[in-house]
Amino acid sequence: MTEEERARAYLVRLFRHRPRSRYEVVTRLRQKGFSRETIESVVEQAERAGLLDDARFAQLWVEDRLARRPRSRQMLERELRAKGVAPEHIHRAIARAELDDEALAKQLVAERWPRLLALDEQTRLRRLTSFLRRRGFSEEIIRRALDNP
Questions:
Q1: Which phi and psi angles does 134 have, rounded to 5°?
Q2: How far apart are CA 52 and CA 25, in angstroms?
Q3: How far apart are the C-alpha atoms of 112 and 114, rounded to whole Å?
Q4: pLDDT digits over 54-102, tens only?
Q5: Of the chain's two ends, which shows fewer C-beta atoms within 10 Å, N or C?
Q6: How far apart are CA 106 and CA 58, in angstroms?
């Protein structure tokens, strides 16, 4: 098996778990010790085949995050930047999602509120505040979301 065949096989295994950005693929192939020429060739083939598309990756990432573990626009941008996605793909994916941070924060508070009813108000507010901070919401959005839970 040639180096390029091994790299393609590794790439297929990576994509079985989840879609990847171009940056992630290149990084993982480098970590495995593949040559620069092999990486360029395999990445180019994956792009031509439609397996590797940062715009589609960003869209899928945003949709998945909002469906499974909702987070703020800022947090989504940060995650996608860390995965090497270009700013124009990030902004387009987030714009398509029509993300409203305040409405999302209020929705998350409403979902969490019943679980915290047994706690005193100060503890409940502290936990909700921490939860929303971890999801990347600004202090202003958190304050407005907790004003009328």
A1: -65, -25
A2: 9
A3: 6
A4: 999 999 999 999 999 999 999 999 999 999 999 999 999 999 998 899 9
A5: N
A6: 25
* Distance between CA atoms of residues 80 and 55, nearest Å: 11
* DSSP 8-class letter at 51: S
d(CA 81, CA 87): 7
For residue 97, give Cα distances in angstroms to 37, 65, 91, 141.
37, 11, 10, 19
Terminal-to-terminal C-alpha distance of the chain: 60
Query: What is d(CA 96, CA 108) in angstroms, rounded to the nearest whole number?
Result: 21
Residue 18 burial (C-beta neighbours within 10 Å; 0-12, 13-18, 19+): exposed
The rounded distance, in Å, linking the Cα atoms of 128 and 126 is 6
Q: Which two tokens stand for residue 129?
A: 């505040």
The pTM assigned to this predicted structure is 0.85
Question: Residue type for 132, please?
Answer: L
Is 120 a residue whose pLDDT tops 60? yes
**Separation of CA 78 from chain center:** 8
Cα–Cα distance for residue pair 7/71, rounded to 1 Å: 34
